[in-house]
Amino acid sequence: MTNTALRLKNPSVTLYAFHLCQDLSQELEQLRPDADQLWQHCANLSQPLGIPDLKSLPEKIPSPLSQTAIASRYVELLPGNAPLTYTAPLQLAGSPLTVQVYPVKIHDTYALDLTLSCQNTVAASEFSGFNPQGCLLASNIQASLGQTLVLYGEPVGTLEEDRKLADACVDAFFQGSDQKPQFMASGQLFGSPIFAYDNRKEKPTEQCHLLVWLNRNPETSKLVEKTSLSFFNLLCCRSKILFAYDQARWCYRQTRALYSQLEQEVKGFKELPREPETRLEQLKQKLTEMPPKTFEYAGYLRDMEDHKNAIATNDYNYDYWLNKICEHSLEDDTIKFLEDFFNQRTKRFKKQIQTDLNYLKPGQQLFDQMLGSIRGIVDIEQAECDRALEKALRDKEKAAEEREKQLESIRHQEQKAAEEREKQLERWIALVGTGLAVSGISSQTAAKPVESMITQLYPEQSLDCPTAGVTPCLIYTLVFVLFHVGVGAIAALIMDRIIKLVSK
After folding, report:
1. Residue 328 in contact with residue 394, Cβ under 8 Å?
2. Nearest residue to 340 via CA among 236, 238, 249
3. In 478-502, which positions are buried (b, 16+ CB within 10 angstroms) versus exposed (e)?
4. What are phi and psi of 201, to 5 degrees?
5. 87, 90, 82, 89: which is closest to 113 by C-alpha?
6. Angle between helices 346-445 and 276-326 in degrees, nearest 10
7. Model's pTM, two decimal places?
8. What are the residues whose beta carbons fall under 8 Å from the beta carbon of 487, sequence distance 6 or more?
9. Strand bridging mode 146-155 / 209-214
10. Contact criterion met (CB below 8 Å) for 251 and 225
11. From first to last of its 504 residues, what are the pLDDT tens digits of the chain?
């Protein structure tokens, strides 16, 4: 049977997209800087869908939110709490597409319900019309928490053809794209078969989760309407669990990289040089480089704990909303693929994160201990260096003092020698002055003894006679001078003796 024979009556495609608008690092009333990204990307669908009015969607959503909206767990964001409805110029099987946009806030998450529907019978091969230019793919919506697509309609063929019909719808929807998910599981909900597809990507913006729900029971549409809010919340919890696990794995990779770097620091710590100054310098460098890495390491471990708690919280909420859905389920319903996500995948996620934490936490203790050891060694090395430096300074000061003393002694000796020379000079001046003074006085008062001595030597010549000979005159003069100089010299010697006695 060809795909053209596989048809759906009144088909619809619903995009459930979830984007984080708040996080723990901000105040309760604050939104993330990229909070309105989901509305912007939804507004960008105005071009492929041919709906110009859709471009004004971000303007219709209040920002900032009121305190009531922030505190509420579920808030409808449009005025009047009714979805926006547009008629697209695109047509499927001769019928126009109806587009409904319903934005809400679920706790800390912006959520979008975008539904494209057609009131006609459409061949599975025409399902690409619900995804013009691949506008509903995850790569275009870029919801931070991920998205789920639900293809819904009434199958025209037999029950045995349902799987082929579902595969054909998926093939046509992802025509020309390399993002087509693979079939994962099947079940029955509200009396109608449901098929699950997934590409198993960890990164939320790359995930492609798709459900094909074929309405084969008159009660299905009624029960879908009754449980639409529970289903919306269930898918939100699923996306938040996958997002938290992806973030935990990212933190794990970052922590492993830091672990490797810090391990190299440990090896380098064992190979420090023996020279005290070089070793101290390298240790100080490690003290500068290691604390930020150690702090970052601890921060990633804390974030992993937070993501594990987020998974546990949303796991609980997922179970709550699943039970709400099951309250309306029919007797033959089998939703094992929804239960398996709760029973298997979320438990595996939590176990994996705990295993990662158990592996990485001892590393934190090791690095803290090593950091403490380095601080202790640096303190000891620094104290020793300070003591050595202090001793060197003391020795230098002592040597300077010794040199100063020596210089002082030399200066003192030089000063003393100068004083002694000055005293000697003064003494000689005093003695010479005394001698000259005594000689002068003697020359004025004691001329007679010299004359008598000359007369006795030269009795025939008189010194008073102007005509006396030259020799007696010269002899007289010489003897006169020598006599009085001798008297001055004797006086100077006496004075010198007196000065020495006084000095002692």
Report:
1. no
2. 238
3. ebbeebbbebbbebbeebbeebeee
4. -80, 140
5. 82
6. 150
7. 0.75
8. 438, 439, 442, 446
9. parallel
10. no
11. 445 579 999 999 999 999 999 887 777 677 888 989 999 999 999 999 999 999 999 999 887 777 767 777 889 999 888 899 999 998 888 889 999 999 999 999 999 999 999 999 999 999 999 999 999 998 899 999 999 999 999 999 899 999 999 999 999 999 988 889 999 999 999 999 999 999 988 889 888 999 999 999 999 999 999 999 999 999 999 999 999 999 999 999 999 998 888 777 767 666 665 666 666 666 666 666 677 788 888 899 999 999 999 999 999 999 999 999 999 999 899 999 899 888 888 999 999 999 999 999 888 777 777 777 667 666 666 666 777 778 888 888 888 888 888 888 888 888 888 888 887 777 778 777 777 777 777 767 655 555 665 566 556 555 454 445 556 566 656 666 777 777 777 877 787 777 777 776
Written in H, E and C, the secondary structure of 407-463 is HHHHHHHHHHHHHHHHHHHHHHHHHHHHHHHHHHHHHHHCCHHHHHHHHHHCCCCCC
Q: Which residues pair with 154 in a beta bridge?
A: 9
Radius of gyration of the chain (CA): 57
Structure tokens at 337: 């693929």
Do you know the residue count of the chain? 504
457: CB partners within 8 A, 6+ apart? 472, 475
